[in-house]
Specification:
alpha+beta, Trna Endonuclease, Chain: A, domain 1, 5-stranded mixed β-sheet, 5 strands, 40% strand
Length: 112
């Protein structure tokens, strides 16, 4: 089972348009970049594990930082991506192909 394909199918069923898969940058890769018709842009990390709970726990703070930096690079290189909002979603996939979304899974914290 291809977890990223299952995640893309789930996103498309929910009305998202896939802009990129496996978007590589110098800071790392983002599994999926998708947009919704209301101009919401999502950077999506896909985690496949035997149990959805294990997948949910698989996104480390270090990976979050890498995703944030990679998203900044992609936004700078794709000024054509118009958006009114950005979020980071985590899509969890189990061996049966069940997909669960944690919308807005983490945010960039501004220093105080």
């Amino acid at each position: 089972m291809d977890a990223e394909a299952a995640a893309c199918n789930a996103l498309e069923r929910d009305g998202w348009t896939i802009l990129m898969r496996r978007a590589r940058t110098s800071c790392g890769e983002i599994d999926i970049v998708a947009e919704r018709s209301d101009a919401l842009l999502a950077f999506v990390e896909v985690k496949a594990r035997p149990a959805l709970s294990a997948a949910a726990a698989a996104l480390s703070p270090r990976q979050q930082g890498r995703l944030l930096r990679a998203a900044e690079i992609l936004l700078a290189t794709h000024p054509d991506w118009t958006h009114d909002g950005i979020r980071f979603d985590l899509l969890l996939v189990d061996p049966s192909g069940t997909v669960r979304r944690i919308a807005d899974a983490f945010r960039h914290e501004q220093p105080a």
